[in-house]
Amino acid sequence: MKKALITGITGQDGSYLAELLLSKGYEVHGLIRRASTFNTRRIDHIYHDPHANGEPVHLYLHYGDVATADSLLDVIYNIRPEEIYHLAAQSHVRVSFDMPEYTGDVTGLGTIRILEAIRKAKLETRFYQASSSEMFGGAKPPQNEDTPFEPRSPYAAAKVYSYWVTRNYREGYHLFTSNGILFNHESPRRGETFVTRKITRALAAILAGTQKTLYLGNLDSRRDWGYAPEYVEAMWRILQQDTADDYVIGTGESHSVREFLDEAFGYVGLDWNQYVKIDPRYFRPTEVNYLLADPSRSQQKLNWKPSVHFHELVRIMVDADLELVGRKSPGEGRKILEERFGGWHRWDSQVVSMER
Prior knowledge:
Blueprint: E1 3-7, H1 12-23, E2 27-32, E3 59-63, H2 69-79, E4 83-86, H3 93-98, H4 100-120, E5 126-132, H5 154-173, E6 177-182, E7 185-186, H6 195-208, E8 214-216, E9 222-223, E10 226-227, H7 228-239, E11 246-249, E12 255-256, H8 257-267, E13 276-278, H9 296-301, H10 310-324, H11 332-341, H12 349-355
Parallel strand pairs: 1-2, 1-4, 2-3, 4-5, 5-6, 6-11, 7-10, 8-13
Antiparallel strand pairs: 9-12
Helix pairs in contact: 1-7, 2-4, 4-5, 6-8, 6-10, 8-10, 10-11
């Protein structure tokens, strides 16, 4: 049984990746930070108490922090995983302007701490670095593996650092280290302050009568949006290659925040102009206007191509948030998941928890 370690396992990508690896027969280990409150709701449905009788345990959680090298070395040395998926980060771009030093420490230096732990432990571990399309920043679209980086936020700059140290350890120490440069990927498990989920949650609250106004920033920013569960499949495929390399992962389509509003509110028959107001606090000091992936290499070498299109993604997210507030959804998103992925529950633990 292969062992994999996931940092950031309680996040959107970490939870989907844990599900995927468990379905492939892995023993999965997750790194979580010790806190006074539990933050494991995205993985509660796949975690079994090791003290429970009759339940085989293939998912283990370990306390640790990417901000401290000693805890990482202990966990990695003791587990000795064949694969490490480094997803943990301070990943909110707007917040990185408010907490630049913390973002640099966790999102940037956290990566080299893990790489050093692998090197010092003398492991033949395959390492996946979650790089970001934000690294391209102001670069002209479409962006691919050869596009020069032009980071326009502390978050993006920290990710550029992580990208290059991942390559440095591959070339200097001959470790199997790969970058997945993922463009925006969303789902019903997306963090509630990210713009896509902020929109779908607000729409559900408006229909439920608990919210009247949605405050947003730049509506003209364009992003390449895909469906997160498909993107973790790409992560896994990157580490199954014969040689380490770097890959751009995206749909090859770009849409504005305004278009996301059109799709979401139009899906339930509302005009978003009646509910949305612009708040300058949500604008970034330096904006990234247009990100668009050229995923040619990942399609050719990984044989990976997303199947969920933009309007389908929006419907999946709206349906999930409507159900979370007890409202009947139009059901197109649920139908897409049932027909294409074999069911709704596999892809949304929040709905699972609500329906127990």
